[in-house]
Amino acid sequence: MTLESLSFIEAILTSAVSAGTIYLIASVGECVTERSGVINLGLEGIMAMGAITSFIITLAYGHLAAILAAALVGAVFGLLHAFLSVSLRLNQIVVGLAITWLGLGLSAFMGAPEVARELLKALNPSVPEFLAELKQAPRLPEVRVEFLAGIPIIGRALFSQNALVYAGLASAVLLWFILFRTKWGLSLRSVGENPALADTAGVNVFAIRYLAVVIGSALAGVAGAYLFIGYQPFWVENLTRSRGFIALSLVILSSWSPLRAIAASFLFGGVESLQFRIPLRGFGAETPQLIMMLPYIITIVTLVLISLASKGRIPAPAALGKPYSREE
Amino acid sequence: MLRRSLPGGLRLSVRVERRPEVTPRYSIIVSLGMLLFAFLASGIIFQFLGFSALHIYRSFFTTLLSPIMLEEVFRRSAPIILAAIGLCYSYRMGFWNIGAEGQLYMGMIAATGVIVLHSAGYGPGEQLLLPAVVAASMMAGGAWGLIPAVLKVRFGANEIITTLMLNYTAILLADFLVHGAWKDPAGYGFAQTVQFPAAAKISIPGVPDAVAYLAIALAATVLTFLVFKYTVFGFESKIVGLNIYASRYAGLSISSILVRGVLISGALAGLAGLIVVSGLIGRLRPGASPGYGYHAIIASMLGGLYPPAVFFSSILFGMLVTGGDLLQAGLQMPKSGVEIIMAMIFLATIVAEFVKRHRLTIVVGRGEGVA
Question: Is ipTM > 0.90 here?
Answer without folding.
Answer: yes
